[in-house]
Amino acid sequence: MPSNTPQPVPLPLESSPRSQFWAGTRAVLPLVIGVFPFGMIYGALALAAGLPALAAQSMSAIVFAGASQFAAAQLFAGGTPALMVTLTIVVLNLRHALYSASIAPYLKPLSPLWKSLLAYLLTDEAYAVSILHYDRPGDQRFKHWFFLGSGLTLWLNWQISTAVGIFLGAVIPGSWSLDFSLALTFIAMVVPTLRDRPGLAAALSAGLAAIALYQLPYNLGVIAAAIVGIAVGLLVERGKP
Amino acid sequence: MSVWLVLIASGVLTFATRLSFIALLGRYEPPPLVKRGLRFIPPAVLSAIIFQEVLIRGGELSLTFANTRLLAGSLAVLVAWRTRNPLLTIIIGMGALTALNLILGV
């Protein structure tokens, strides 16, 4: 970062794979605490949606992307065809291509195996802490170990919280309106991110379109509404001075 | 079983998305329009699902006070907006729904 004021020079920390790995782990600990309840709710919801426990847990390991897993559980519960469920998961996760593009220059020197491993661990949270770390000055050689440390910690946290949720989901009485936690989880995820006009316009227009289109077959209404939202977001953004 | 097909297909495609530009050696960037559009996907998709979950009850649009999810959901939006605290949002939302259902006997 170019800066006119001299920055205090950090102590020359010994940089090694091990120190970077644990630094990455420590960096995501606050996030881990925030993500844990989401994993639990996902596990319980997936079970309530009729997914076998093994499939619910496997989705956390195979797909490893929170919001899309929630959406999939809800769609499965509604009897949505497999193709539509897959399409919804994939579309929701398309944003990861942005993270991929943003972090790619730093991963250039790594082996294909490292690249694949880090790509698998590239979640919103792992991206957020790792890109900040890469952008910081200092020894760049072992920073992929930081990424690995943060990614693995988040991964482990997601698997454990899912398992706890599946366990609790089996003992929660059916009279609880557990399915409402899906809407609440999404509200908790989305509302804090709506800080600018284009984002707000995208969310509101997609929501209204989803209501207008809810009778479309195969739950196509959600995807169609998302396209409306994205278009409106882009238009509002372009109209900005 | 189709559940497993969905898991494997969406898992492979999600991984491919994450690997995409990393595998391209950082030589290519998504075009600016795509880049900007991708940012709107999460708010658009999640909001579409929120609106359907809260406003469609029993297969029909429900905009009355009898729809306790609408009231509890609106309260949750307010809490999320003011506090940006996910856990508090979920707890207050669930609490409000439970209380409203008890009061209104729904």
Overview of the molecule:
The complex is a heterodimer of chains A (241) and B (106). In chain A, 49% of the residues are buried. Chain A has two domains: 157 residues, no CATH class; 48 residues, no CATH class. Chain A has 241 residues and is mainly α. Chain A is globular and about 60 Å long. Chain A is built from eleven helices and no strands. The model of chain A has no long low-confidence stretch (mean pLDDT 88). With 106 residues, chain B is mostly helical. Chain B has two domains: 39 residues, no CATH class; 67 residues, no CATH class. Helix content of chain B is 75%, strand content 4%. Chain B contains five helices and two strands. Chain B has a two-stranded antiparallel sheet. In chain B, strand 1 and strand 2 form a beta hairpin. The radius of gyration of chain B is 20 Å and the shape is elongated. The mean pLDDT of chain B is 90. Classes of the chains: A mainly alpha (241), B mainly alpha (106). Chains A and B meet through helix 1, helix 2, helix 3, helix 4 and helix 5 of A and helix 1, helix 2, helix 3, helix 4 and helix 5 of B.
Question: How would you describe this structure in keywords?
Answer:
heterodimer, A: 241 residues, mainly alpha, globular, B: 106 residues, 2 domains, 4% strand, elongated
Mean pLDDT of chain B: 90
Radius of gyration of chain B: 20 Å
Mean pLDDT of chain A: 88
Major β-sheet annotation of chain B: 2 strands, antiparallel
- Structural class of the helices, strands and pairings of chain A? mainly alpha
Count of extended strands of chain B: 2
Query: Which of globular, elongated, flat, extended, rod-shaped describes the shape of chain A?
Result: globular
In total, how many domains does the architecture of chain A comprise? Answer: 2
Strand order of the largest sheet of chain B: 1-2
Structural class of chain B: mainly alpha
In total, the number of domains of chain B comes to: 2
Kindly report the oligomeric state of this protein.
Answer: heterodimer
Question: Terminal Cα separation of chain B, in Å?
Answer: 37 Å
